[in-house]
Structures are given as C-alpha cells and as structure tokens.
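USER: Fancy drafting a protein?

ASSISTANT:
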Amino acid sequence: MLEIGDTLISLDVLEKEFICNLDACKGACCIEGDAGAPLEESERLKIKEILPEIWDDLSPAAREIIEDQGVAYIDEEGDIVTSIVNGKDCVFTCYEKDGMCKCAFEKAYKEGRIDFYKPISCHLYPVRVKQYDRFKAVNYNRWKICKAAEVLGRKEGVKVYQFLKEPLIRKFGISWYNELCKVADVYLREKENR
C-alpha cells in the first residue's frame, strides 16, 4: 500500500493494466452483482432531483422498482446503493439496440440534459474507495467480467490509475492525482530495477 494524504492506495492500482472494453463486456458491470452501485448521500439527493430528466430512458421494471422503494436502498453492509431490478441490474441501466448496457445518467449528460455524469463509484470502477475512520482505502476490484479490459490494458500498456485519470481527479483532486503519478513513476521504476 502507498499513502497519499488520508488515502491508502493498493499497489494493484499502480501495477495492473486496464482499459474498459465495452465491445467485449457490453457494460456487464451495470447488470451483474448482488447489490447496486455505492452512492454518496449527496448523489442520492441529486439523483432524486434529476430523475424526471432520465425517467423515459429507464425500463418499465426499473420505474416500478423506483416507485416502490426509491432510487436507492441500504445494502447488507450498511451502504447506500442504487436500487436494482431482478436482484442484480442497476435501475439506471438503459439498453442499446445491440444489447449494450449504458448508464442513463451518462447518456443524458452527454446529450446535455443533466449536469450529473454518473455516481463516482461507477466512474471510478474498477477502483473501489472505502472510507474508514482515519483514511480512505483505494483498491482495485478484479472481477471476471472485466477480463477483456485487463487484456486490452496489457496490450496498450495502460495502468489502472492512468485509465482512471478523470474520475480519480473528480474524487480526490488534481494535486492528489499528480502526487499519485509521481509516486507511481518512482515505485514502478524501482520495481523494474529489482
């Protein structure tokens, strides 16, 4: 683990390669799993505010879930997560004609309809951030559905932290990210020279 400010960063974030390969996975991270995407309370409130703007992009089943239980719920670990359909699909997933899963927030954002890109946990994936009393843990979450992303990352030589530059800056700020790059450069050079 490496430390920057109040964050502890897993070495996998620096060492492993990753580039999302949507052509291969079709957005499976939006529809697989046993809970919704983690949300910050401010995001939950923002989602409630912008819900009318994305409502027509959601499936009838998703709308029904949202009407019954809301945009989020508390999971088994006590975290706020997006509501899900069929025990796994995020309610904010919309499907393209080719079967590709897309985020309704991201779609609306790119169309200029809303000013919210997507929940930070989704933007940061495959990195997960866990808040503890005195620090935040920044970990790379390996999942079999992202195997094609690991292969593409290795082919292109792009590390997890490089692929996630924009969301890491969104979460932690540009100074933090610049420090991460410096630390990564030194660490990876030293590792190579061993």
The radius of gyration is 17 Å. Residues 1-18+126-194 form one domain.
